[in-house]
Specification:
With 82 residues, this protein is mostly helical. It contains two helices and no strands. The protein has one domain.
Length: 82
């Protein structure tokens, strides 16, 4: 991945940092909402075998969003170090 870098004709460093931070915060907020939407066994009374599969898929989605949030965090750190 190519990480944006400030330049004379581009965004100011602070603007880039704010963009990266906003993206990270949005993803972390989404993670909290996704956790509230996790499948619960009480909703699988008629198909209990589907619960484990659906729960695992939801947990993978949460993990992916957390990973993306971490990538934005690392990009922000890298921007600050430049």
């Amino acid at each position: 991945m190519i990480t944006p870098r400030p330049g004379l004709n581009g965004d100011k460093p602070n603007d880039l940092l704010n963009q990266l931070t906003d993206a990270r915060i949005a993803l972390l907020d989404a993670v909290e909402v996704m956790k509230k939407a996790l499948p619960h066994a009480r909703n699988y009374i008629w198909e209990p075998e589907m619960y484990a599969e659906d729960r695992a898929r939801a947990e993978r989605r949460i993990a992916a969003a957390q990973d993306l949030a971490e990538e934005y965090y690392q990009d922000a750190i890298n921007l600050l170090e430049d």
